[in-house]
Amino acid sequence: MAEVKKISVDVSKIRTAIQAGIPLIITTYTLPHEMELYMTDVLNTFIDELGQSQMKDCLTYCFLELVNNAKKANTKRVYFEDKGLNINDKNEYKRGMLSFKEDTINNIKYYLKKQQQEGLYIKFLLQTRNNKIKLEVRNKSELTVFEYKRIHDRIQRGLGYESVEKGVSTILDSSEGAGLGLVIMVLVLRRIGLTEENFQILSENGETITRMILPFSQKTTQDIFALSKTFVDLIEGLPEFPENIQEINRLINDDSSRMSDIATKISNDVSLTAELLKLVNSAAFSLPSPCHSIPDAVKFAGIRGIRNLLFSIGTMDSLMLKDDSDKKFLWDHSYKVAFYSYNMARNLCKGDKICIDDSYVCGLLHDIGKIVFENAHPSVLKKIEDMCRARGLSKDLFEKLVAGVNHGEVGAMIAEKWNFPEVIINVIRYHHDPLAAPEEFRKITGLVYLADMIVHYGEEQVSYEQMDSDVLALFNLDTEEKVALISERLLKSFREDK
User: Which of 201, 340, 376, 432 could in theory staple to 451 by disulfide, Cβ–Cβ 3.0 to 4.6 A?
Assistant: First the structure.
């Protein structure tokens, strides 16, 4: 027997997907054994990176059951087509299933080749968000009504059994092997405390989608919250905003202040003056002639524009990573996302002045959790390390959870300590899961999410299919061609702007 060629797993790619909250997607048409092994290795690596090894055996079994069911479903479609049978007719379905197993086993290469020619894919998706793992298997064929009922009957029956042994001894399906496997899968999920609420089967838009949403263990969830809160509490030494910026912010929040008072205060700071003039002379304001007057610039920018300018400059002054090329990329990425967010807002959110005004600062500060973590004093990290040891966690896992998986929540906690506006706090908290944001902030959060994804897309770190289709739909970006065009134009403008 020929040795199966092993496909190596790119661990760095898995870590990037975990940190960015983007899905890992693997597509196959015939599911050869080496691809099945590769998918299993990716799943196990993903689980290990999240410190959820207690799920490994359960998820491996569920994955193998689902992906092989998906393969069989696709094969069934081409088999019925080849035999001239209507798979949606109950009587013809029964007749076809009598010979399906034997015929396909004896001529499997023919049917696998045929389903590949017809584009009947199998997709395996893994993603983590909000302390949960999403595992999804999709195949390019919709369930018939009676297949759908049959599967749900098996799931409900599985929920009624007390153990795997009881299920095996009770259910034996002579025409289709999926019945027993589904029962066992439901029982296996129950062993780790999951219910039917964690499991979905959908059939839509030409696909069958089997989805499992699995929460981290209760201990991990508690550890993440405790470590995140402790980390934020320990960094009392967060640099204060420069005094001049604090003074201007106090003026802005004082109803008795006049615009002229704010203009005078800004005029006393060379860097603020330069940044304000740069802002009002940008393409955003489309002034007929350059503005050189600070009082006029203050009027053009308005209170909201000045406040956002202060948060941007104050944060950068406080957290800028100096003389550290290994960490400077965090700010470089933030600048790029800010630029993309603002320019996308002008084109995709026309008429929404608030979204346009807030887009730059929200894009700039979306990864503040990561930036603060990289800037944390060694003494803070030492205390966290001690806490991890006491909880039986590795420091490496803490960094993955707090600086990676949970950096949005950490960043939001920090933004709350700095009294940032609600819009900035919510964008930071939900920028990897914008549809979970409060409705009033969902649009701008989705915008920053897309800007972040399009930056990664232009750097060939994510694909179009890894982007959240519901968020894309919010902005009518329903084809990759549209996203690719935006990416190309923004990258060109960003380079010219620099």
Answer: 340
